[in-house]
From TrEMBL:
Residues 32-44 have a biased composition (Polar residues). Its main location: nucleus. The keyword Zinc does not apply. The gene is Piso0_005704. One of its GO terms (molecular function) is RNA polymerase II general transcription initiation factor activity. Residues 1-45 are annotated as: Disordered. This is Piso0_005704 protein. The keyword Nucleus applies. InterPro entries: CBFA_NFYB_domain, Histone-fold, Transcr_DNA_Rep_Reg. Residues 59-122 form the Transcription factor CBF/NF-Y/archaeal histone domain. It is found in: Nucleus.
Amino acid sequence: MSSINALINPMPSGGNEPSPAEGSAKVEEQTAFESTQSENTNKVPQEVILESFERIKTHFPAARIKKIMQSDEDIGKVAQATPVIVGRALEIFMANLVEASVVEAKKAGVRKISASHIRSAVENTEQFDFLVDAVEKYPPAES
């Protein structure tokens, strides 16, 4: 099985050295990639998210998730696997939020995450736009 990098950036089939036309196209592509990366400085790399997700040892209790789901009158029976899947999705979401908060705390030169760092992560990360209203009540991070 090929690595992800090999699939994303395949080598030209004609050998190790790209032709001059391919080389200039690659330079333009890399420049575009770097400009995109500089615009998305608040984005946490996928490798960091996957690494933090693999370290998760605790799980949300499926019975409690099922109870919360069934508290909605519109939901009837819940399949056995559903609360487990919802719990894993919640773990992934929390890992992403914590990693983004860690980035904000490191920018501030602090080793302890506070509510203001979580607020900054929510405000600066497009993925968490739906939480902006929920974090408005917390003080903004000091710059």
